[in-house]
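Re: that chain you flagged

S.,

Sorry for the slow reply, it's been a week of failed gels. I finally had a moment to sit down with the sequence you sent. For the record, here it is as I used it:
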Amino acid sequence: MPTFILTKPFLGVLFNLLFLNTLFFNIGFAQNTNSRLENSFSIEICDKNYYFLQEIENKPYFKETSLSELNKIEYKNRVWLKLNIKNSNKKFIDFNKNIDSIKVYHDNKIFLSGNLIARSEKQLPLSIAINAIQIPVYNQPFYIEIINSQNFPITTQLEILTESTFNHTYVETHQNTVQFQIFFQGMMWIILLYNLFLFLSSKEKVYLAYTIYIFGFSCFSLQNSGLLVDYFASEKPYFSLLFRMFALATIAAGFSAFIITFLPKILLTNFGNVFFIF
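Prediction finished late last night. Pasting the C-alpha cells below so you have them in one place:
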C-alpha cells in the first residue's frame, strides 16, 4: 500500500473533526446579573413533577429565584416557571434549543415551542434551532411548562430579550448558519464522491471507510444545525432524533473501519484470540 494513503485520510479526518467542533459552537446565553435587568421581571420556579397547571396555579408551590440561578442549575424532566415581565421593551424569551417542549399558559391559551414541536405549531415558527416565545402579557404573571420527554436533565438557559437583540443575535445568526451549512454540505459531498471514486478505481477499503465516515458526518451536520427538520421534516420533529442516532452510528462505523484498515493483521488475529475464544 502506498504510504501517502495513510497520510491523506488521517489529515482528512482531523480536518473534519475541526469542523465538528465548529458545528457544536452555539450562541451563548449572556448571563446579565445587573440589578436593573433583574428588576425588570420576576421569576418563580416549581420543580415538582406536576402534570397540569390547575394543580399548582395560585398555590404556594413556587419559590422565587433569579435568572442567573435558574440558568446554572439542572432540573428534572419537567419544570414550571411563573414569570412577571415588567419592562415592555423585553419582547421575547429564548430557551435552550435542546429543550423538547415549552408551553406558555396565558388567558386560557397555550403557546408552544421546543425542538420536538412541529414547526407549524410553534408560536414563532422560525426554526427548529430557535426555541423562543413572544411575551404574551406584561405586569401580570403567566406560567411556563418546560418538558424533556426523554427524561434528560433540563438546563433552562433562559434569556429575556428586546426585539432588536433577538433579531440580531438569533434570527440573523441563524440565517448565517444556514448559509454556512449549505456551503459545508456541498463541500462534504464533493469529498464523499471523490473518495467513492477512489475506492471504485483502486479497490482500497480505506477509501470506502472514509466515504462512510464522511456520509455519517454530513448527516449529523444536517441534523445538528436544524436544516433537516426545517426544510425536510418540519412537521415530524421526532424523525430528527432517529436521524441523529443513524448519523452517529454511521460515523462510528466509518471511523472504526478506517482505523481497522491500518491495524496489522497479526494484531487483529491476536485480539480475536484473546477476546473471542470459544
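What I noticed first: The chain has two domains: 3-25+173-275, 35-157.

Talk soon,
D.
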